[in-house]
Amino acid sequence: MPKVEFKSGKLTLEGYLELPRGAGPFPACIVCHPHSLYGGEMHNNVVIGVCSHLVKSQIAALRFNFRGVGRSQGEFGGGIGEQEDAIAALEFLLQRDEIDAERIALAGYSFGAFVGLAALNGNENIKALVGISPPLTLFEFSYLKNCTKPKLLMMGEMDQFTPLKVFKEFYEKIPEPKDKRIIEGADHFYWGYENEVGQVVADFLKKTFENIP
């Protein structure tokens, strides 16, 4: 599993670019971790679960630490600096020969959903979006109401931060193409549900990438 470094402005960020077996170029997904100040980092259980299933589905996975986390330089950026990091991650992928630049997606979990979707929902190089437990009551996601890219929103049935009613109402307000998945029995942290989450994300992106001409 190749460890990588890339620049976000003047900062150097650490990450892992996991590639499927075989010959590329491969479709790819950037995976953004939860809140940096509350233990979020690229080795998070959900991040690992998603990445492992992506690679099994022949999709490359880039996970990385936001600024100020692990060996990534800098300090917490209040969500704004982290958006710059997500953009830098995309720019890094676009430079890699192993990656199919026409098939790149963004997936974010919790705070990572806020950061990644806000930063890249309008970027022409991102072809699909995945929001895992987007904290709809804590951060602004209204920009998705104008987003016509394929998108998957996922929530644990027992999520501690976003009531299912709020999640379902928000989902109804965003345009097609879209899909949603509620994971029965899971809360915001998905302990014991990592494989289910990862498989749902991988299946969605595999189908989405296959439909790109």
Spatial order of the strands in the main sheet? 1-2-4-3-5-6-7-8
Q: What is the CATH superfamily label?
A: Alpha/Beta hydrolase fold, catalytic domain
- Give the strand content: 25-35%
CATH class identity: Alpha Beta
The run of helices and strands is EEEHEHEHEEHEH
- In terms of quaternary structure, the protein is single chain
The name CATH uses for the topology is Rossmann fold
Radius of gyration in whole Å, from Cα?
16 Å
Broad structural category: alpha/beta
Our count of domains comes out at 1
Mean of all residue-level pLDDT scores: 98
Q: Which architecture does the CATH hierarchy give at level 2?
A: 3-Layer(aba) Sandwich
Number of helices: 5
Straight-line N-to-C gap: 30 Å
Q: Which residues form runs of ≥5 with pLDDT under 50? A: none
The major sheet is characterized as: 8 strands, mixed
DSSP summary, beta strand count:
8
Overall geometry: globular
Write up this protein:
With 213 residues, the protein is α/β, with parallel strands linked by helices. It has a single domain, classed as Rossmann fold (3-Layer(aba) Sandwich). 30% of the residues lie in helices and 25% in strands. It is built from five helices and eight strands. The chain has an eight-stranded mixed beta sheet, sandwiched between helices. Helix 1 links the parallel strand 3 and strand 4 (60-64). Helix 1 (45-56) crosses helix 5 and helix 2 (80-94) crosses helix 3. The longest helix is centred in the C-terminal third of the chain and has 17 residues, at 194-210. The radius of gyration is 16 Å and the shape is globular. The two termini are 30 Å apart. The mean pLDDT is 98.
